[in-house]
Structures are given as structure tokens and as C-alpha cells.
Fold:
Amino acid sequence: MIRVYNTITKTKEEFKPVVAGKVGIYLCGPTVYKPSHIGHMVGPVIFDAIKRYLQYNGYDVKLVINITDVDDKLIAESNSRNLPMSVIANEMTVDYMNNLAAMGVKDSVDAFPKATEHIDKIIKFTQDLIDKGFAYSSGGDVYFEVGKFAEYGKLSHRSIDQMSGEGGGAVERKLSPFDFALWKSAKPNEPSWDSPWGKGRPGWHIECSVMSCELLGETFDIHGGGLDLVFPHHENEIAQSESRHGKPMCCYWMHNGLMQESGEIGKVGGRKTPAAEEGNIQSQEIGKISKSKGAGAFRDMLKQFTPETIRFFLLSTHYRRPIDFSFARIEEVGKGLETFYRFAKRLEKITEKNFYLLSAPTNRNNGEILKRTFASNEKLQSNFCNLISSYRTKFLDSMDDDFNTGGAIGVLFELLRELNKFIDDTRLEVVRDEDLISVLLYGATVLRELGLTLGLFVAQPKEAASTGTNELVGKLIKLLIELRNSARKNKDFNTADKIRTALNDLGIQLEDRTESTDWNLTK
Ligand SMILES: [Zn+2]
Structure:
């Protein structure tokens, strides 16, 4: 039985979808005004793993992540770069998609609805709220009247006097400072659309109510997002959707912890932060990483670490806890991952079978069938086979318990240790025994089966990644760039050109920017 922690009830509840066998998940996506940083990958990687695990449990899962492509931040960026908002939104959406593709998440997402492609439906939804008496127009804006929705605050567990009047718009146009904007009248030179209330654009919260309903229905299963979205964003989504439909918007509200700079390193933002308390939004926000604190573009991080290392790092923590970010932590996690890669090589040497091609069950119920395909009755009874089964059960128990990926990864390490120990004890590297090889293959297949439910071990890592040279190469190129820059400073252009040409021949292209030099692989 899968149990899910629900923010709205503050308890773990048995997971039961609205429609048997089907699961709809809506995850709040990014506002596309800057290149993605690692913080933008947390939700997609976590919910990709949750989707994979639910599929493994036999559910047909639809995952939706929205793209906010009209927003105050985008308008500000458009003004400062003197480019149309849509150009910036498109550019940053491409960046986001490339990053998701690199992380192996893009294909897992069934739809990426955009706010600007749903303006007509947003207007209709807003008009319905006015007609039902939950919203009012005022000076070209439309506001949701918070006082009309008796359950306001039920998700964030706040009473109205604990809330600050957020939600945008002009205070003088609102009946109460707590009311929030559904529609904002256009200021001069702002992108706008025609509406019954004049030219304007949607507020932020309304798009998620509209698009989730459009793609997943009036009541769907799981709504996810970062802990920082509980209030006001998700509280407002509930108010909008439940006022219009008269039924719960979704069954399980799941919130992931935020990424914060590790206190131990501090160089990401140069600011040490206390460990955030689980589930406490305020304490997690203190250390939330952002570009301004030094977390650079995610595409640059991909030059330093493999996507699988980053996935392993993100899933090593339980999703509700804050993720301690530091490059040292990712490197450390990467070393752990390499122990799996080394096992794969060891296995191949002994069995002549490629670990990444082992056909592992994609359905939870096939575990026993798997066992029988590998081992004879007698061998099945062996302590080792039973041990493997017990680790499998332990892994599944962890995942059933509110998708505890951190605990599950811990079990993968235990299983790995047992498999290596089995090879050592049986001396399989020197003594060939077909029965024992078959049992080893069973254990390895279970390892791959479980890893796949987290999106791990999907494909064979590139050689460089598996030996850890990827990170080393990044550091060496950085060193060469520094040497080249100091050569240029000393007007030693010969040396500088030599470094550039030699790197170019190796398929590494340097790009000089105002402040720094970037590099790209061309081969
Ligand atoms: Zn949202």
C-alpha cells in the first residue's frame, strides 16, 4: 500500500486515485525569464521518479508541468533586455526543455501547457467566478474576494490574520488587502489581451487552476510544487478552483523541500545557513538558492556533472526535506554512484552480460516470476536469493512510505554490497559456476529493476563518466582557461592561441565573454 503525505491534512494517507488505475499529476513549473538553475530541476526529477514508481505499480500516469510565460518578472526582463516578452519566454523555455531532456525527464512529462496559450479559457474561468459571486472587477482588474471562500487558509493552515496581503494589484481597487488578482489591467507598453474588463493579462495563480482542470479534470490526484508555493500560490489555486467547481481541486497536495546552500561549504552564495526544519517554509526560504546567490545556469552544471549524478544527488534526500546544495556534496554522491558502475563492469567480466541490457521487470508483480527465470528450485531456496528478495521488499517499503527515495537509495547500496560480497565469497571471478552465475544475475537484475523505478541505470554511462574523469576534465579545462587568460594578460598571444587551437582540435571550443570564458564540446 502506497502512502502519501498530504500537506492539507498533515498526515500520510493511503493512496487511492480518483479513477481506478489512473493518476493525474500537476506540477507547478517555472516562470521562464532566466536560464534554469539546479533548483528548477528538483520538482521535475522528483515527480519523474514518482511517476516511474506509480507506473511500476501498474498505474497509468499523466504528468503535467506548466510554463508561466506571462508574469511581472518576464515583463521586467523584457524591458531590461529591450526584447519582446515572447522572445525571452521562448528562449528560456528552450533552455528549460534542453535541461529536462538532458536529465531524462522531458519524455516523462505528458504536457507542458503555457499560460499564453490558454488566455480564452482563463477569461472564461474568471468570468465564471464573477458570475458565481466569488470575484469582482475593479478599474480594469479582476480580484478574487478571499472573504467569500470560507475554507481559505486550509492548505497553509493559516488564519487570515496570519496572512500578508499578497496577490498583486492596486490596494485602492481591492475590497480587502487579502484579495488577489485574477486579471490585471495593462499598463502602457505591457503585453496584453482583450477581455470583458479591457486590455490586460492574467494574474499568476489563475493559470494553474485553468490548465490543471483542462488537462486533468476538476478533481485530480496529485498536485505538486515546492514548499514555497503553499502560500499564497496553492492556497489561491484551491480558492479559485473549488469556488468554481464546488468540489476538491485535488486529493493529495505534495510539497518538496527547497534546495539550500550547504552550511558546510557556503561558497555557492557565501552565506552559511542553519539546517532548515522539515516542512517549515520560513526556515527553508532563508537558504533557498537562487542565481543571485551564485547557483549558475544548469546547462553549465551539466558540463561538470553527469545527469545521472545530479539525479542521484537530488533523490538521495527525502523529497520533503530541504536539499543541501554544494559541489562537494554532488561530487561525493557521484563517487557513490561510481560504485554501481564498477559493479556493472565486474558483472560483465564474470557473466559476459551487460548490466544495462538485463531485462528487468517493469511491473512490481513480476518479481517472483523473475526469480524463477534465473534460479532452479534448489537455488531459489538459497539464503542468498532470500536475502536479495528481502532487500527488494525493503526498497519497496521505503518507496511505498511517501516515496522515500533517500531510504530506497540506501537499500540499493546495501544490495550492492551483498552482490559484491557474493562475488568475493564464491570467487566467481576465478571459479566459473553456471548456477552461481545465474543467481548473481538474478541479484543484478533486481538491482536494475529497482534502480529503474527511480530513473537510474537507464543506459550505460559514457566511459568518462563511469571513471569519474568527467569532473576531472572540467577542472583541467578550467585550469587551461586560466593559463590562457594569464598568457593573454601578459600579451603572450602565442601561448594563448596555442591553448585555444589545441583545445579546439580536441573538440573543446572556447567562448570568450565579457567577464569570463565559457567552453563547449563540439564533438
Ligand atoms: Zn501553479
User: Anything to note?
Assistant: DSSP finds 18 helices and 14 strands in the chain. Confidence is low (pLDDT under 50) at residues 264-278, 464-468.
